[in-house]
């Protein structure tokens, strides 16, 4: 399998706090890669560096064979990196369908002149946006709420709508920041099926998640962060047995235990 | 073969088509009715429509993109002075309107980008303060650019500005058409109406497009908008530039219509008035903005004509002059609207729904 993303020695600090120290990891094409760690370990900071919300203080990303200029989120999106947010960030006063249509923005071209004249090319593009957005709503399973305002959707539906919006940017790498947070068992199960489907359809997935059952069942490989450092990168079964990971989560293990 | 417009009308539901036809007939007949009360009434109509045009221009910036702009009048001033300088005895230039109007729009657009570029990172109150300052700077410049080189003629303003002319056909003065005497303000009415129809059309088309959705997304959540790949910088600049261009066009027509411009016409109060039209009517909702603009443009004139006779009839003397009453009523109206209809007098259905649901 070829490499999709290579992070090399990513550093990020906020004043005296070292949020990330020399984090390197490699994500292969077509895998589901998990990023776990205790609270405050730097997982979301890593996401923000990758998607251009933060500029790393050191190191860099190689995405799809090309260096990633991680200084503007829209550039990352144009390159094919889409994300969702830990605290859902939908366009609340727009309908679910419109939210996904906004996601199509980066892959479409119509400008002011096209918008005003509504020439055949613009109309065709607009029709394609609508069709694709409806498909995506179906895909994530919120098609029946298409015309409701995003803010009025249930929590689980909002999470899935955010995934649909991210998918509308036609990403090569989909970054999900705690997608299962606040979901019940049944919803988490549906989410698992959805993420597996996304991978099957050819999109690589990077996942931050605290639900260990989900992570261990879903991910091909995992990286564990603790205090901004990568302490382990391996397949789930190996990570579960790793001494440093257990220490990070449960505290120091006595020698004679 | 049917004309496309006719085709469109026939496709509408019957009562909508009926309303459209009756509405346009009324709009076309209005200046001929208003003239019966004197030219002053037609002039009031002209100004009201000019405000509708301005408010719809500002609606692109404030309503669609959510950028609170308190210096909008500056672009209006740029357009007005462009016309005044290029078509008056002040510099001895008398260029035709099809040169000046685009120049004015372009210059205003340039100023829009100039204002937009450094304020891209600002939001809400901070943006409002910077744009407010910008509006004042332009006005003060106009006031003082009469020395060492006299460019704007300072506080005296520029007089004897050319009217809009299509070849030999001037929009000011009288014209005989089929034995009917058309007055200047009536002719301007039709020009302004045409411009207004155009700006409504452009507003509507933009709102329901890829660009309009991107603006709305930025208004809702800028970080999320960036994350889905919207170039927020360009989109905001575009909103500023488009709003400013419309301001510039309105300014040009205003200068030509009045025949006189001075910095006094472009005070902060005017900016606030136009913003109040947008907010009072219903931000981002085109019919609402039109309603707001008409109400606030007509109110002072109605007061001027109504207050004195009413007071004389009631009390036998004038207790409060119309000008002070105007600000009183304006302030009261704003407070009442903010208290009872914070979404504006005629909000878009979605916004209405959202605010009422929030209460329950």
Give the topology.
The complex is a heterodimer of chains A (257) and B (360).
Chain A lengths: L2 E12 L2 E12 L3 E5 L6 H8 L7 E6 L2 E3 L4 H7 L1 E3 L12 H8 L8 H6 L2 H21 L14 H13 L5 E5 L7 H16 L3 E5 L3 H7 L2 E6 L2 E6 L1 H6 L1 H8 L7
Parallel strand pairs in A: 3-8, 3-9, 6-7, 7-8
Antiparallel strand pairs in A: 1-2, 1-4, 4-5, 9-10
Chain B lengths: L3 H8 L2 H21 L4 H26 L8 H14 E2 L4 E2 L2 H20 L7 H21 L20 E2 L2 E2 L4 E3 L2 E3 L1 H24 L2 H11 L1 H6 L4 H27 L9 H14 L4 H30 L6 H19 L8 H11 L1
Antiparallel strand pairs in B: 1-2, 3-4, 5-6
Helix pairs in contact in B: 2-7, 3-7, 3-10, 3-11, 3-12, 4-5, 4-6, 4-10, 5-10, 8-10, 11-12, 12-13
Would you give an account of this structure?
Chain A has helices spanning 43-50, 73-79, 96-103, 112-117, 120-140, 155-167, 185-200, 212-218, 236-241, 243-250, and strands at residues 3-14, 17-28, 32-36, 58-63, 66-68, 81-83, 173-177, 204-208, 221-226, 229-234. Chain A is an alpha/beta fold and 257 residues long. Chain A folds into two domains: 1-80 and 171-257, Rossmann fold (3-Layer(aba) Sandwich); 94-168, no CATH class. In chain A, helix 3 crosses helix 5 (120-140), helix 3 runs parallel beside helix 6 and helix 5 packs across helix 6. The radius of gyration of chain A is 19 Å and the shape is globular. The longest helix of chain B has 30 residues, at 286-315. In chain B, helix 4 (73-86) runs antiparallel to helix 5 and helix 4 (73-86) packs parallel to helix 6. Chain B starts with a helix and ends with a helix. Chain B is built from 14 helices and six strands. Chain B has a single domain (31-294), classed as ABC transporter involved in vitamin B12 uptake, BtuC. Chain B has helices at 4-11, 14-34, 39-64, 73-86, 97-116, 124-144, 184-207, 210-220, 222-227, 232-258, 268-281, 286-315, 322-340, 349-359; strands at 87-88, 93-94, 165-166, 169-170, 175-177, 180-182. The mean pLDDT of chain B is 87. The interface between A and B is large, with 44 and 31 residues.
């Amino acid at each position: 399998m070829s490499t999709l993303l290579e992070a090399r020695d990513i550093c990020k600090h906020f004043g005296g706090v070292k949020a990330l120290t020399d984090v390197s990891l490699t994500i292969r094409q077509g895998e589901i890669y998990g990023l776990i760690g205790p609270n405050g370990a730097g997982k979301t900071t890593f996401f923000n560096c990758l998607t251009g919300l933060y500029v790393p203080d050191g190191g860099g990303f190689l995405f799809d064979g090309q260096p990633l200029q991680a200084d503007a989120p829209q550039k990352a999106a144009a390159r094919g990196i889409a994300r969702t947010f830990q605290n859902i960030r939908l366009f609340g006063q727009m309908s679910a369908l419109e939210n996904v249509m906004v996601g199509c923005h980066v892959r479409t071209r119509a400008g002011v002149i096209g918008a005003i004249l509504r020439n055949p090319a613009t109309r065709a593009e607009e029709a394609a946006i609508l069709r694709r957005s409806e498909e995506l709503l179906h895909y994530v399973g919120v098609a029946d709420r298409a015309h409701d305002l995003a803010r009025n959707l249930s929590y689980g539906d909002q999470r899935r709508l955010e995934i649909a919006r991210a998918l509308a940017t036609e990403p090569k790498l989909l970054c999900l920041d705690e997608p299962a947070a606040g979901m019940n068992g049944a919803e988490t199960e549906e989410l698992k099926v959805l993420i597996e489907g996304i991978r099957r359809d050819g999109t690589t997935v990077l996942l931050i998640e605290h639900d260990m059952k989900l992570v261990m069942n879903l991910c091909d490989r995992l990286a564990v962060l603790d205090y901004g450092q990568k302490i382990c990168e391996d397949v789930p079964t190996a990570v579960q047995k790793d001494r440093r990971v257990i220490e990070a989560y449960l505290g120091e293990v006595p020698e004679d235990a | 073969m049917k004309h496309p417009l006719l085709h469109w009308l026939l496709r509408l539901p019957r009562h909508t088509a009926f309303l459209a036809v009756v509405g346009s007939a009324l709009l076309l007949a209005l200046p001929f009715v208003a003239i019966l009360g004197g030219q002053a009434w037609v002039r009031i109509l002209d100004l009201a429509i000019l405000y509708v045009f301005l408010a719809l221009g500002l609606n692109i910036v404030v309503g669609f993109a959510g950028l609170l702009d308190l210096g909008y009048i500056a672009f209006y001033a740029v357009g007005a002075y462009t016309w005044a300088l290029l078509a008056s005895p002040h510099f001895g230039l008398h260029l035709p309107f099809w040169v000046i109007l685009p120049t004015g729009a372009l210059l205003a657009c340039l100023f829009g980008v100039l204002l937009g570029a450094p304020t891209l990172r600002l939001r809400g109150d901070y943006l409002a303060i910077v744009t407010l300052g910008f509006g004042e700077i332009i006005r003060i410049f106009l006031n003082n650019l009469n020395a060492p080189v006299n460019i704007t003629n300072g506080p005296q303003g520029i007089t004897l500005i050319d009217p809009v002319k299509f070849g030999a056909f001037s929009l000011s003065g009288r014209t005989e058409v089929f034995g009917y005497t058309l007055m200047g303000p009536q002719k301007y009415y039709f020009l302004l109406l045409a411009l207004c129809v155009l700006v409504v059309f452009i507003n509507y088309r933009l709102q329901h497009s890829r660009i309009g959705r991107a603006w709305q997304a930025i208004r809702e959540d800028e970080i999320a908008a960036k994350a889905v790949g919207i170039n927020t910088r360009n989109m905001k600049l575009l909103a500023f530039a488009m709003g400013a261009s419309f301001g510039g066009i309105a300014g040009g027509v205003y200068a030509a219509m009045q025949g006189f411009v001075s910095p006094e016409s472009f005070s902060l109060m005017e900016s606030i008035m136009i913003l109040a039209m947008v907010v009072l009517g219903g931000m981002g909702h085109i019919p609402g903005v039109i309603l707001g603009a008409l109400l606030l443009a007509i109110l002072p004139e109605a007061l001027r004509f109504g207050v004195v006779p009413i007071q004389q009839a009631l009390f036998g003397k004038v207790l409060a002059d119309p000008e002070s009453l105007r600000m009183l009523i304006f302030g009261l109206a704003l407070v009442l609207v903010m208290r009872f209809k914070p979404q504006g007098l005629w909000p878009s259905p979605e916004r209405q729904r959202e605010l009422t649901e929030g209460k329950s």
